[in-house]
Amino acid sequence: MKVEAFLDRFFPAGSNPLYQLGAVSFFLFWIIAVTGLYLFIFFETSITGAYQSVESITHEQFYIGGIMRSLHRYASALLALSVTIHLIKELGMKRFQGPRWFSWVSGVPLIWLLFASSLGGYWLVWDEKAQYIALTTAALFDYLPIVVEPMAFGFLDGTTVSDRFFSLLIFLHVGLPLALLLGMFIHIQRISNSSTFPARGLALSLLGAMVVLSVVKPALSLGPADLNRPVQTVQVDWFYMNVFPLISETGAGAAWVILLGITIALLLVPLIFRGVPKPIAIVDPDYCNGCSWCFADCPYDAIYMKPHEKLANHLQSVVVADKCVGCGICAGACPTATPFKSVNNAYSGINLADENNAAILVRTQEQIRQHPQADKHVLVVGCAHGPQIDQLASDVVTPLTLECVGQLPPSYLDYLCRKEGVDSVLLTGCAPGNCFHRLGVELQEARLAHEREPHLRFKDVHVKVTTLWAGAGGETTVARAVAQLQQDERIADAKDA
After folding, report:
1. Which end of the chain is more exposed for a tag (fewer CB within 10 A), N or C?
2. Conformation bin of residue 19: beta by default, left when phi > 0, alpha when psi is -120 to 50
């Protein structure tokens, strides 16, 4: 959180790379794919030609081939970094609990595919580093009982490695990334409106920085591999070769125990740290009008539409229980939640099981009515994963904490400002692009801007609404904003109007 807050100083809103690690990873993958395709055109798949073809690409085509090779190399390193940080962040934020277990568990095998794909690229260069990787990898797999003939026999000398070996390497270096890409799309299978491309400014900045680095410090090969001569010294690439010194020091057996132990531990994380089950959304057919807005807004593909149980020629929302994370965004999207109805004024077609929209409205009204004479009453609406706002409660400030800020129907703001004397509203929550429930901030912003249904109805209420997406730990910033709203002359002008 502190690193994210620090980077927010240098990146425009929504462009912080730590908020878009998944999209950045996809972007880097496509860079690797495009540059890899170019390199493949000029690569010679033979024991004698592999090294020379790479050298030719690097030096004779330095103006394009060398840059392509370096881009391929640096994008691969950055991909390993982004995936690692993505894993650490999801673990720290506990985004593996409940229905989110699928994305977590499906992501673990991708780490193996990522490393296998990248290490295969080192083999193709066939320099001293490739020789070291080949021999160490062979020793690692020779330890497994499923290997009948030791792989290391194939690398005893140059006469036992043929051109067909490089054809196999090319096949693996193409096939493994394709399997990785398929796994990446499976990884986001339970996520709707997923982002696979980062903000344009961030994407261009990353690409530009890697191009500059490729020119200033191009990727170069070591000396050619010579299987008749042992490698004395090799520079370790800590992005992908971090396990190789471990294999050399502890042996293949201990390395397998550590690697498989880490993998199994990661797979068991959702089972070990289950957390408290969140109440899921439930549909009330008596009030569901089949508008499909909840279906369109659900960040986790947990809603689908079916023929209505009670209304002919209408649709009805259905919640898939094992996909619903209980964010409440669907409840905020329901147009039947408006309190301006003449009967059953706050009941709506979809709600969270623990507290429906009607109860939230009543709870908020009771808090506001405790201080009927408050001057410039401020309603602060926040989420459970952003700044903690409960300590702001006073005679003139009413805090309302929801599971996600996207859970709030905009009609409630219209009603509370017009009927309950609220003079100003501050919406706060997760930082832009870093919503705990993925789309809550984005959707609520779109509703307030009349870009998405449902939206605010009254212009005078729109003037009273301020947004401050301060993110977790932004309590001081929110408190300062509330104090400023107390003195904002626009509030008095809107109230008089």
Report:
1. C
2. alpha
Q: What is the DSSP letter of 389?
A: -
Residue written as token pair 């429906």: 356
Cα separation of 236 and 242, whole Å? 7
Rounded CA-CA distance 372/45 in Å is: 81
Which domains does the chain possess?
A: 2-272 (1.20.810.10), 281-496 (3.30.70.20)
State pLDDT tens for residues 162-218: 778 888 889 999 999 999 999 999 999 999 888 889 999 999 999 999 999 999 999
Greatest pairwise CA separation for the chain in angstroms: 93
Q: Which amino acid is at 307?
A: P
Q: List, for the chain, all residue ranges whose pLDDT scores fall below the cut of 50.
A: 490-497
Q: Residue 303's pLDDT is what? A: 97
The answer to whether 280 and 324 are in contact (CB under 8 A) is yes
If we measure between CA atoms, which residue out of 442, 465, 466, 443 comes closest to residue 330? 443
Residues 6+ positions from 184 with CB-CB distance below 8 Å: 25, 26, 29, 110
Q: Measured between alpha carbons, how far apart are the two ends of the chain, in Å?
A: 42
